[in-house]
Design a protein that fits this description.
single chain, 4 helices
């Protein structure tokens, strides 16, 4: 299986023919939620389903937190419980913690 054609424009920096939608699902989901158009988001939901998208989103919000804050705020009503959102909001508004390193360096 290959990446759907309407999602290819979001991955301009890599050869879209070499992207495996299942091996790279986390990055694909986060990229489309962050920068995708309405049509691309519809394609994302058709490709992975809301449960898989929710798992990836929630794992990022409670883990490495690589998604930009406006994206988390926008999708939080759909994917997060009120308690999870409040926890994220407290973390995000903390004056020092928001500058912490978020990515795992191997």
């Amino acid at each position: 299986m290959k990446l759907p054609r309407d999602l290819e424009s979001l991955f301009w920096n890599v050869d879209s023919r070499k992207i495996d939608p299942w091996k790279s699902k986390d990055e694909i989901i986060k990229t489309v939620l962050s920068r995708g158009s309405l049509e691309q988001i519809k394609t994302l939901f058709q490709l992975y389903g809301p449960d898989t998208i929710s798992l990836v989103f929630r794992a990022d919000v409670t883990g490495n937190r690589t998604l930009p804050a406006p994206v988390v705020y926008m999708w939080s009503n759909l994917f997060l419980t009120p308690e999870e959102f409040d926890e994220y909001r407290k973390w995000h508004r903390h004056p020092v913690r928001k500058w912490e390193q978020r990515r795992n360096i191997g």
